[in-house]
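seq:
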Amino acid sequence: MTASLTLISTACASRPTPYETNDADGYTVSVRFDANGGIFETNTSIINDSYSLDGIEKNSDGMVEIPLLSPDDDARGNDSFDATMKDHFLAGWYAKRTENADGTYSYSEKWDFENGMLEVDPSKTYSSASPVLTLYAVWAPLFEIRFHNVGTEGAAESYVFDPRETKSIKLPEWSKESGMLELYEFPEREGYTLKNVYRDPECTQLVTESELVHPGKLNEDGTVENNILDLYLDWDEGEWYHIYNAEQFKELASTVGNYVICNDLDFTDVIWPNKFATGNFNGIINGNGFKFSNVSVIQTDANEMNVGIFGKIGADATISDVTFDSPIFMIKGGMRKAGSQYGLLAGNASEEATLSGITLINGVINIDSSANFGTPDYLIGLVCGNGELEAVTAENITCVAVGDAPETLTITVDGNYVTVEKAQ
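struct:
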């Protein structure tokens, strides 16, 4: 069975209309597709399929059965006509449209293109200009998820989607490969990291599933229920990372970064970030009881006046529940400036920093015999250059001379403090 597709347009008076051409060619039975507020790719709102009944066998009732193609059926090939309507999706094509008292319409008899057949009485006379069937596109509003920031007024961000393609959305999850939070379709918020997702503004209904199914429903008559889902987002201030290996920690190093440690980290083949060793750390490290092993820091630049695993631990820093196992701090040769401070954990730590549950074990400070401090105005600490830290448990920490002539250095350890004397 063949069909002729007609676009509804105005023809020149001197030429036959598409309907007249169809009738002349025997394509007299037509089905009209009304985009019903939408628009086809061809920038028209109505198209007709016209059929010829010549040579078609009748069924047992004496009728001719015609299988219809929806406008967007791939079987049309290059004659595919997708209908669209802004902010809506196509709920289906319906054969019956009823006007309501308020001027709106209701629809019924949704056409089943896969199984339905149009029955035509071949004894009747038809004209392609008068369709035997009109199918109306019924449009439903796209499904929407509105994201509200907890404690923040103003417009919410939205994720809008076609439920024919998917009805679920993945919840954000931490990537073990990147150490960062994969947000998927959830919005970003500059300066914040998503903490929790709730179903209610009071934050009593925590969303715990990894994939959330939208509760919206498309009814048989083309209407929808609950097409809008509201979610409430609770944020942590700052950039947060979940760290699973030493390379991640190095790549994501920031003096204001916030880190949740999720595994033991071995830095044997990973260089400790210099921005930590010489910078002013004011981020957060939640060690979760895990271990940093074989951290190695080498101080070579005489202009670096605060050096250690952390150069400075600032007033806004929080470091908790972490063990540094077998760290090495090397002070290389060269002149040091007055006021320099060095320590295995830190050169300097603010009294206002929040430190708890930190352990240093089996650590060593190596001082090269060619190092020259040039002034008594310097501080070296086994743990911290500017003083003891009550939150730090130090076990088996040593300071030794190394280099070409270690015998030229006399190293004295008094509690936390280290004094270095060089033979004249």
